[in-house]
Write a structure and sequence with these properties.
Layout: H1 2-28, H2 34-49, H3 58-87, H4 91-109, H5 112-133, H6 140-160, H7 166-182, H8 191-217, H9 227-252
Helix pairs in contact: 1-2, 1-4, 1-5, 2-3, 2-7, 3-4, 3-5, 6-7, 7-8, 8-9
Length: 255
């Protein structure tokens, strides 16, 4: 148990440092990847915490991380769209979105949601050590393994459903993949499995982007020239996602 607790505390401290670095980059608006890196780190934190539900302080920290994710999702969506528009020569449509995103970086860096998350992260290793001293973490390893096994079974069941929801599958794949990265000593995934998970997640992410863009195009007139291409793009993305899911199913679940 001691080694698992040590691993947990070390992971929390590592993620805290990464968040601080992303926060500094957001404050200075030094690069376009700062927000993405912040969100990825928050996602990894949530994956680390999910199997720990029931421990003191976990639910509050998980809620704080979720709030940061919800705060930054619309901003990241606009950032991705602006990059697409720039790449495809729609400079004016890209310009105002890029400017709006850049102005929002500082707001995110100073947000109550992010400050709350940092405050709770500072306290969390202490909470864990107190519970360790009070012998409240017995069976921690088995509990984490049980949660990870449930995640795999839930993903397998969802993939076996002919009427599966691509959005839900994307979330389930993220949970499985990031949990394995958070607890590598408890994961039995091969390098091939991880590659298949990553490929499926990427293909579903492309589908999700097109779905988001088409939704926005119905509300934002300057995106009208993109609609026809995006309709074609989402069909291709659906096909690629289904192929990636089929390869994942054959490799991991004998579907």
């Amino acid at each position: 148990m001691s080694s698992m607790v040590n691993h947990l505390v070390a992971e929390i401290l590592t993620l805290d440092i990464k968040l601080l670095a992303s926060h500094a980059r957001l404050s200075a608006a030094t690069d376009s990847e700062a927000l993405h890196d912040l969100r990825t780190t928050v996602r990894r934190l949530r994956s680390l915490l999910r199997p720990l539900r029931g421990l003191s302080g976990v639910e509050q920290l998980e809620e704080a991380a979720k709030a940061v994710g919800q705060l930054t999702t619309p901003l990241r969506d606009m950032e991705v769209l602006a990059a697409y528009l720039t790449e495809h020569g729609m400079t004016e449509a890209a310009r105002w979105r890029t400017e709006e995103v850049s102005r929002a970086y500082g707001q995110v860096a100073q947000s109550a949601e992010l400050n709350r998350l940092f405050g709770m992260l500072d306290q969390f290793p202490g909470f864990i050590r107190v519970q360790q001293r009070q012998h409240l973490l017995r069976g921690l390893r088995q509990s984490i393994e049980k949660t990870m096994d449930k995640q795999w079974k839930k993903l397998s069941k969802a993939m076996a459903d002919p009427a599966h929801d691509r959005h839900q599958l994307r979330l389930l794949i993220k949970r499985v993949r990031y949990a394995a990265e958070a607890y590598p000593q408890l994961s039995h995934q091969s390098a091939r499995t991880q590659a298949r998970l990553k490929a499926a997640q990427g293909a579903l992410g492309d589908w999700h982007d097109h779905l988001q863009w088409l939704t926005q195009a119905g509300q934002q007139q300057d995106l009208a020239p993109c609609i026809a291409g995006w309709h074609l793009g989402i069909v291709r993305a659906e096909k690629k996602a289904d192929e990636a899911l089929k390869r994942l199913g054959k490799a991991c679940f004998a579907l």
